[in-house]
Design goal:
It is a single chain. By secondary structure, the chain is mostly helical. It has one domain. It is about 70% helix and about 0% strand. The longest helix has 26 residues. About 20% of the residues have low confidence.
């Protein structure tokens, strides 16, 4: 049950940042290669900050400078989420509230790095991810 809650929390936070289907656009420059703490759940490669930067680069045509600015934001977010998931003293409600706060904070930081056109595309990605999540959630209820 805890693993399902953790997976749901991670997918909610990161699913809103990333869109499921990759596009065939080549990035302006390769994502910077630094060591980032990998996510600790099985099948969670998509939560690796380097992979997130690569996906955002494909979708938003990020510059090399933008990639370097986003990597620490995504790495920090990943570390904060892991800390919350590993904190057994938090109630379910507190954990949820903290996750929402981290998501909002990281989205604001990401948008601060983007151009106006990229912000619009990013907002569209978030909307599509929300719809995908709602559809997936409603299909699992039945």
């Amino acid at each position: 049950m805890r693993k399902q809650i953790c997976c749901f929390a991670l997918s909610t936070i990161f699913g809103l940042t990333l869109c499921a289907a990759p596009q065939e656009q080549t990035p302006a420059a390769p994502a910077p290669q630094t060591q980032a703490a990998p996510a600790q759940t099985e099948g969670s490669r998509q939560f690796d900050p380097n992979r997130q930067v690569q996906r955002l680069t494909k979708k938003l045509n990020l510059t090399a400078d933008q990639q370097q600015q986003l990597l620490p934001i995504l790495t920090d977010r990943n570390q904060q989420v892991q800390a919350i998931l590993n904190d057994n003293s938090l109630s379910r409600k507190d954990r949820h509230e903290k996750m929402l706060a981290i998501r909002q904070d990281s989205q604001n930081k990401i948008k601060a790095v983007l151009t106006q056109e990229q912000k619009q595309a990013y907002d569209q990605m978030l909307q599509e991810a929300r719809e995908h999540h709602r559809n997936k959630k409603s299909s699992n209820v039945g």
